[in-house]
Amino acid sequence: MSTATEKPGKTEKPGKTRPKVDPLDLAGIDDLLSPEEKAVRAAVRQVCDASVDPYVAEWFEKGELPVVRELARELGGLGLLGMHLEGYGCAGMSAVDYGLACLELEASDSGIRSLVSVQGSLAMYAVHRYGSEEQKRQWLPRMAAGEAIGCFGLTEPDHGSDPGSLRTRARRDGSDWVLDGRKMWITNGSVADVAVVWARTDEGVRGFVVPTDTPGFSAPPIKHKLSLRASVTSELVLDGVRLPADAVLPEVVGLRGPLSCLNEARYGIVWGAMGAARSALGTALEYAGQREQFGRPIAGFQMTQEKLANMAVELTNGTLLALHLGRRKDGVGLRPEQVSIGKLNNVAKALEICRTARTILGANGISLEYPVIRHMTNLESVLTYEGTPEMHTLVIGQAMTGIPAFR
């Protein structure tokens, strides 16, 4: 009679080896992806390996992204700009495809993912969802190809988490609109060809498609950043910017417009943060296997293995959450609180993974010879942009209790 531990037919034959374990995918999440999804991921990884990874540490150190237009055209040629939108030169791919692309882009650098996210999920999405047919035809094909770069002007110097109090104003002057105001922390601002600017009007908050060569528009770059340094960040200045009547986005009035765009971009962050986390964990694992102290690799010490195991668990949990939200978005759509769960959890856990990885690298953890400190400082920005942890916590709290606690 077999004992409880004896299972006939389960004994491995001599010489048979188990499949090699991927230490960055212990749960086998890859098995849940289709061949087509894996192909999308591989294509993005290939372009990042060739055109980003060899240079991004230098860009970060210098605080510049000198090849932003060349990179935009390359990413556009791959179909990554507005890739989840339909028509007008957009690839029309799935939310999971887009998420996998964001993961690979942010595994290289958060600033590169931000370039793609702002272009596709903010500027292009706003025009695609709320623009006129003429606006769509004028801008979307060029933006999808990377021939035109867009930015998204909502955040102001004094109004970040409270966009309902924005001060940028659009007033009627005959049939024209005249815009005055300031926007702050705008990705792509000083290299953009078009800005989607949100302003207060007598009718409520409206969005405007603003060519950046319009008189009165300027976008001075923001200097002295210690995060997202391989990214273009600017202020937008609008001094009497005169636009024709058809510059307004006709299909939306109120904060529903910009907030729906932000939910699109936040979804990409849910995935992207796990890319930064994977890169940091992979670096720490490789380093721990090579770094010797007390006569053996530090990977052999229990406390190091505890750190590695905890990081692997959080990476697994976050990636599974991102995949679940992606499948749901492709199926029935996402509610705002579901996006908030993903953004709140995954960015915080990714930042924790990067900080832990930094400790494994010791003093080398602060060197740009390794990507860990770069990911860590980038995630400090990702943690608070497009919704601070406090705001996402309150979105979730309101969904649970039915009571808004924002004021």
Q: Output the number of helix runs.
A: 11
Strands ordered across the widest β-sheet: 2-3-7-6
Distance between the termini: 69 Å
Largest sheet: 4 strands, antiparallel
Give me the Rg, rounded. 23 Å
Integer count of domains: 3
N-to-C SSE series?
Answer: HHHHHHEEEEEEEHEEHHHH
What's the CATH superfamily of the largest domain, by name?
Answer: Butyryl-CoA Dehydrogenase, subunit A, domain 3
The best one-word shape is: globular
Find the count of extended strands (DSSP E, 2+ residues). 9
CATH C-level name of the largest domain: Mainly Alpha
- The whole-number mean of residue pLDDT values reads 94
Proportion of β residues? 5-15%
CATH topology of the largest domain: Butyryl-CoA Dehydrogenase, subunit A, domain 3
Please supply descriptive tags for the structure shown above.
single chain, 407 residues, alpha+beta, Butyryl-Coa Dehydrogenase, subunit A, domain 1, Butyryl-CoA Dehydrogenase, subunit A, domain 2, Butyryl-CoA Dehydrogenase, subunit A, domain 3, 3 domains, four-stranded antiparallel β-sheet, globular
Give a written overview of the molecule.
The protein has three domains: 29-144, Acyl-CoA dehydrogenase/oxidase, N-terminal domain (Butyryl-Coa Dehydrogenase, subunit A, domain 1); 150-253, Butyryl-CoA Dehydrogenase, subunit A, domain 2, CATH 2.40.110.10; 257-401, Butyryl-CoA Dehydrogenase, subunit A, domain 3, CATH 1.20.140. It has helices at residues 35-51, 56-62, 68-77, 95-108, 110-130, 133-144, 256-290, 302-331, 336-361, 372-384, 389-401; strands at residues 150-153, 169-173, 176-187, 194-201, 204-211, 217-218, 233-243, 292-293, 296-297. The chain is α+β, with helices and mostly antiparallel strands and 407 residues long. The model is unreliable at 1-12 (pLDDT under 50). It is globular. Helices cover 49% and strands 13% of the residues. A hairpin with a 2-residue loop joins strand 8 and strand 9. The protein has eleven helices and nine strands. The strands form three sheets. A four-stranded antiparallel sheet has the order 2-3-7-6, with helices on one face. Helix 4 packs antiparallel against helix 5.
